[in-house]
Design goal:
This protein is mostly helical. The chain has one domain (2-296). It contains 13 helices and no strands. It starts with a helix and ends with a helix. 50% of the residues are buried. Residues 9-134, 144-279 form the EamA domain. This is Threonine/homoserine efflux transporter RhtA.
Length: 300
Amino acid sequence: MGQRMLASAEWLLLAVALVWGTSYGVAKLALEHYPVFGVLAVRFILAGLCLLPALRAIRWQAWRAGLPMGGILLAILLCETWALQYTSASNAAFLISLCLVLTPLAEWLLYGQRPAARIWALVGLSWLGALLLTGDSAMHFSGGDALMLLAAVLRAFGVCWLKQLADRQPATAQALTAMQCWAVGLGALALSASQGGLPPLPRDPGFWLAISYLAVLCTVCAFAIQNYALRRSDPSRVALLMGSEPVFGALFAWLWLGEAMGPLRWLGGGLMAVAAVMATGGGSKVEKGVGEKEEVGVVG
């Protein structure tokens, strides 16, 4: 019975990695119909409505932590979503995985927790992969690649900051996710108002299919499934399965969006995925960082 539950949890985690990997390509499709602020506002308000029951009986102290957490997530998502307008979905999926290798470096800068020597080797491996993925040298980095790299850095620091905020209040992970969704959605609306407001909502069914996928599957369902599965699997298996996210993203972009992926790009992306898996599964400090990310509700 225990082995069956473990196998079930691992299949569920693989499903989450698949859904999150495809989210970059789906978001790119949504951006063909609506601007960045609008896509974020509609996606996260819809997700917030789905999670509305989790907000019952939440005390003000929890909101004081949840709203800043939403602000951090909004900054990360703005970088990610803008980046998708200027880079490929496959590049985005691989570059964001750098956050797993950069998290221990962020812990070092913020808290003085020096990473193990092997982390430096993994950082070098990731950078080599990034160079192969985006071109023969850093000069080939597009503006979108640079924005996605900034998003990875923000995610690495965000994991540390979000953990601190989450530790100061008693709300459940689901309630924190709901607060983050509302903060992102309303924050995106406020930012759009400062730029003259949003155009009318698109009527194209493709837009609403993409937004529903992002809000319901990539946010609400993926987080609930992940919470269930994380309690029934061990960190190394979690790292291996979640490390497959960028590979799924590249496969989706190649098969569905028709993005070109030559041998060097596959090699570079593969090196980054390997570095992410080794970083999250190979040392206690880094496993702790990944666990922190999952518990406080950073959504893909």
